[in-house]
GTP-binding protein
Amino acid sequence: MSISNEIVLRPRFKMELNHGNAFVLKTFEEAKSTSKIYKIVRVDDHVFIRLPTHEQQFWSPQLHLEINEIDDKTSTLHGLFGPNPTVWTMFMFLHFLVAGLFIAFGIWTYTNWTLKNTYALPMGLMLFMVVVWFGLYFAGRYGRAKGKEEMHNLYDFMDTTLKTNGLI
């Protein structure tokens, strides 16, 4: 599994499968009952593979698979690694909050500059928002690095499930 872009926080991959999506989805349904290590949830053409709740940590990744049918004999599997959706939503909310505050402090800085008032405080707060944004970015990188082994294990489980059923 190679990642083409180092800056990406949620690695993605894509592969062609030798069977239609109904057969692939059925394979994961069967793996759901036999797997003791991972929790597998299927919703329509989507399969979510994650650790059981009691083994998850804050940054534990999950693997989201979307299986799209090309024709009766082939399908495309799109994979996306990411944290728990609740964690990801909170993480993105914090990014938008920091961006909004940066813009607000920028308006405050410009207003004070135009009115010939001191603008050191709003300018300092703008720079602080940049520091906070970098902190959020590196926290995301840290979380991805911490869950890297679990990501490889999830990928290996998916790969083994597909290979044992002759799908790739």
In short: The longest strand covers residues 61-69. The beta strands are 12-17, 39-43, 46-50, 61-69, 75-83. The two ends are 15 Å apart (CA to CA). The chain has a mean pLDDT of 88.
